[in-house]
User: Fold this.
Amino acid sequence: MNRNLVSSIKLKRFIFVVFLLGLTPLSALAQDGKPATERTPAATDEKAEAVIKRAIEAMGGTTYLNVRSVTGRGQFTQFKDGQSGLPSSFVDYIVFPDRERTEFKSSEGRIIQTNTGDTGWVYDGASKSLKDMSKTQVEDFKLALRSSFDNLLRGYWRKEGAKLSFTGRREAGLAKRNEVVRLTYPDGYTVEFEFGATDSLPMKILYKRKTADGVEIAEEDRMAQHVNVQGVIFPFVVDHYSAGAQTSRINYQSVDFEQPVPDSLFARPASVKAVK
Assistant:
């Protein structure tokens, strides 16, 4: 799948996640089903924890935390040199904590990317190919999970022993400020999350990635148009910026929670002809 699309449609799992995406919260269940508070203790601070607690309540509280699957549909648009391309449709299936399938349709054909933990596969309709994901692609997916609002709010980061800290407030437009918290993982990877100072809704995710040449680039996701869906607040617009320039926009048209998502969607087809 197109790398920009994959980078954006992690939904950042902020439900993140998604998103989200998502992007993941104080009383949420960790990956093995145990409460996050029963996992390996991680360094944190009270101000940062308070920001997360307010954000969880703003997102829907218990209703948000109880979400285990998300199905999103909408339009994806790439940008180049400040100009937008033609939008393409997508449908994205997420089952927390680490399963996601994204189907992307455009004039060039259909592409499916599916991740399940440490494995994944990609179908390219234009070339009629079906391949297992490379190690790099799997690692990209894991990085996407780390840098999602869901990972933060649902507390999955605690299992990795990441450090949570409050870094203060940041200007966010005319008479607006965001509260900023940072996750620092044991391997040095850091992600900053911004929440509206007045409404506590997720607004931005900032992190850095390295290119194949080893050059570090600043990445940023900006959330907008927060909509109440079944008692959960979900950002229907996600703009992605790389090195300060916009590279894509996700515009959701519909989001459903707890819809049946069969395991067969994530299973690797036996052949190209078996792809559904």
Notes: The mean pLDDT is 86. The helical segments are 3-8, 46-59, 62-65, 135-146, 149-153. The longest strand covers residues 216-229.
